Amino acid sequence: MDTPLSNFGDHGQTGDVQPLIDVADLARLLRHDPPTLLDVRWRLGGPPGRAAYDAGHLPGAVFVDLDRDLAAPPGPQGRHPLPPPDAFEEAMRRAGVSAGRTVVVYDDADSTAAGRAWWTLRYFGHTRVRVLDGGYHAWVGAGQPVTTEVPDVAPGDFTARPGGMPVLDAAGAAALAKAGVLLDARSAERYRGENEPVDPVAGHIPGAVSAPTVGNVGVDGRFLPPGVLRDRFGELGATDAVDVGVYCGSGVTAAHEVLALHLAGIPAALYVGSWSNWVADPGNPVATGDG
Fold first, then answer.
1. Beta strands 62-63 and 36-39: pairing type?
2. Distance between terminal CA atoms of the chain?
3. Per-residue pLDDT band at 16 (split at 50, 70, 90)
4. What residues does the Rhodanese domain cover (predicted)?
């Protein structure tokens, strides 16, 4: 079921904390008021994020597996559909997540996986979630300590309540591509149908606009300034004056783009099933090329 963007709040303001945190502020928090720290390193096609975690992670961080904990098993709903509320709640409690305690999530650098963690926690009702801007690479680059010690965390009390972020299904995405702005966060080559390394059909949803996620961050993986992001999305027709939605291959990089839009002051809905769900129905139309 679609969630109207009108339920998202003014300018996409989804909570009472800033969505990004830098290395210096996180280091200070860890010394004085430690948040729940989640390592969500992951890459499409591997290698497994757990191996990176075991080789070294931020002190106190708990590993959360994107495929297992932030998504349900792949199927007709897509390669990374939303997990059932009870399964997500159990995974987050196991990681020490509690409703009243800030959660900080990080990945290697560009916040692709961290963006999905941020979005999923927000969708299920956690109001205090932050992303380490620049991720693990920024932390190490600043000379901050890492460890291989796996923390013994007390179970959290988080209760999953779906509906905290707006979502789209296939019908909603098709409608938004006509009546609003639907952004395709995949590479331009995948959008045009020139290359499709994962899904069985190449191309894009008719009416969607190409907006590759890589354009949201700098070479260091940190998000571009809000004004730059706002200009970028504005050139694509996405502003806070129109309804905006985002999809990608399976709802991971699109969540990152929702976060970038949020930083720019533009509320946006996520088509969680994304292209992998769209092409599961042979009746859905497919466009190729630049239009």
1. parallel
2. 28
3. low
4. 31-148, 176-287
What does the angle CA 221 – CA 225 – CA 227 come to, to the nearest 5 degrees? 145
Q: How far is 221 from 257, CA to CA, in rounded Å? A: 13
CA–CA gap between residue 48 and residue 60 (Å, rounded): 20
Identified catalytic residue from 20, 248, 264, 272: 248
Q: If residue 21 lies in a helix (H) or strand (E), which one and from where to where?
A: strand 20-21
What are the Cα distances from residue 14, in Å, to 84, 160, 270, 287? Answer: 22, 16, 14, 33
Distance CA 35, CA 27 (A): 11
State pLDDT tens for residues 112-135.
999 999 999 999 999 999 999 999
List pLDDT tens digits, range 156-174: 999 999 999 999 999 999 9
Residue tagged 């990176």 (tokens)? 52
3 vs 163: CA distance, rounded Å: 7
C-alpha R_g of the chain = 18
Write down the pLDDT at residue 200: 94
Q: What is the mean pLDDT of the chain?
A: 93
Q: Which stretches does DSSP call E strand in 99-204?
A: 103-106, 129-132, 167-168, 181-184
Residue 6 to residue 158: CA distance in whole angstroms = 26
* Cα 119 to Cα 272: distance, rounded to the nearest angstrom: 11
Contact 135, 161 (CB under 8 A): no
Residue 88 in tokens: 């997500």
Q: What distance in Å separates the CA atoms of residue 88 and residue 97, rounded to the nearest whole number?
A: 11
Task: Please state, in angstroms and rounded to a whole number, the distance separating the CA atoms of residues 190 and 239.
Answer: 24
Single-letter residue type at 200: P
Q: Is the pTM of the predicted complex or chain greater than 0.70?
A: yes
Q: Which DSSP symbol is given to 239?
A: -
The amino acid that residue 148 corresponds to is T
Residue among 107, 86, 122 nearest 42 (CA)? 107
